[in-house]
Amino acid sequence: MNLPRFTYHSPGSLKECIAMLSDQKDQKNGTQVIAGGSDLLVRMKLRLETPGRLVSLSDIPALKDITYLPGKGLTIGAGVALSALASDAVIQEKCPALADAAALVATNQIRTVATVGGNILQNTRCRYYNRSPVWGKAVAPCFKRNGAVCHVVPRGKRCFAVYQGDLAPLLIALNATVTTVSKKDAEEVSVESLYSGDGKTPFNDMAGRIATAFTIPEDSLTMQVAYRKYRLRGGIDFPLAGVAASLKLHNGLVEDLRLCLTGVASCPVPVKGAGETAKGKPLSRDVAREAAKLAYAAAHPLANLEGDPVTRRSMIRIMTEDILIKAVDSIKAVDSR
Ligand SMILES: Cc1cc2nc3c(=O)[nH]c(=O)nc-3n(C[C@H](O)[C@H](O)[C@H](O)COP(=O)(O)OP(=O)(O)OC[C@H]3O[C@@H](n4cnc5c(N)ncnc54)[C@H](O)[C@@H]3O)c2cc1C
Ligand code: SF4
Question: Does the pLDDT at position 236 exceed 70?
């Protein structure tokens, strides 16, 4: 499919980029930021978005840094490519699970261009929406196409398109923050607060803003972290369900446990109560099963992606239990040495 017409600009500084983004006058169909383009260009080909001007972040070196500062934590530029994230020595030392999760996104070719910022800010997806204009005509326009119906939840009052990013659940389980800048200000907020929970407009307050960096605080870097994803084809697909877990033990007892899901709602879903249920107990198979039950209860996949929602929900329970039982087994292995 062809791309719609647009002009392309690649400024060398963040300042120029923000100026172009905030100057929408004379811009037919508006201006949009493009990073690797692996999400946006596909949407443009499907005519889901048709910005008249694209402003690229590719030539801004400051967005491509990865730094570790003792006491502050790990800061990852929004423009870091996923292939660079997966192979970076600092990431592999300080947060190997993040490198592993990046290596599970899409394919080698896509990871070479796709960025961390684009991954976190990718749009939601639905089989009734991610279609060409011709196939789109087969169904009445739904909420996400500015209609007044949802084909997935016919009595629903909102869009239930699914957020399928692989990195967001990990960053949320690690209490990470994002720094964003606009013409007016710069602010640092939690990654979790970016998401609105509405499939139609999945992000809060990102109009006119650019994400510049993500920071994982120092105390999260001491946690055991893991991510598992369920997909149809291991070599390319989006997660149909995914679980990130971060775990801190003190004297053999659980001090903190955070779980966050992806692929099962319009935003990443932190599992409420997982930490409270496990806190103060030795990490055991029973604790793992209890936490997995909570994750299952928090997941509400619908029939708007490939794969059956019952299986996707069960996979959340199975993957959560699997991550935590592996942690139990690794503790036992250390104890028996
Ligand atoms: C075949 C295929 C398979 C895929 N598989 C996966 C998968 O397994 N897991 C997964 O998570 N994703 C997957 N994706 C989606 C996508 O490729 C990745 O999420 C990728 O990381 C997006 O990054 P990008 O830099 O290409 O984003 P872009 O396409 O450039 O941008 C995506 C969105 O984010 C906005 N944006 C980008 N950077 C910034 C910024 N710094 N500040 C503000 N806004 C910004 C853009 O305006 C756009 O709206 C897949 C895509 C394809 C085509
Ligand atoms: S969930 Fe419903 S409203 Fe949202 S894109 Fe799918 S069909 Fe449209």
Answer: yes
Q: Could you tell me if the CB of 44 is within 6 A of ligand 2?
A: no
Q: For residue 336, what pLDDT is reported? A: 60
Domain range summary for the chain, segments of one domain joined by +? 223-337
List the residue whose alpha carbon is closest to atom 10 of ligand 1: 165
| CATH number of this structure's domain 223-337, picked from the four choices 3.40.50.620, 3.40.47.10, 3.30.390.50, 3.30.420.10 | 3.30.390.50
Q: Tell me which H or E stretch contains 228.
A: strand 224-230
Looking at per-residue confidence, does 28 or 164 come out higher? 164
Q: Is the pLDDT of residue 331 over 80?
A: no
- Ligand 2 pocket test target in 48, 49, 145, 159 with most atoms within 8 Å of CB: 159
Which amino acid, one-letter code, is at 259? L
Separation of alpha carbons 241 and 320, rounded Å: 11
Averaged over 167-176, what is the pLDDT?
Answer: 98
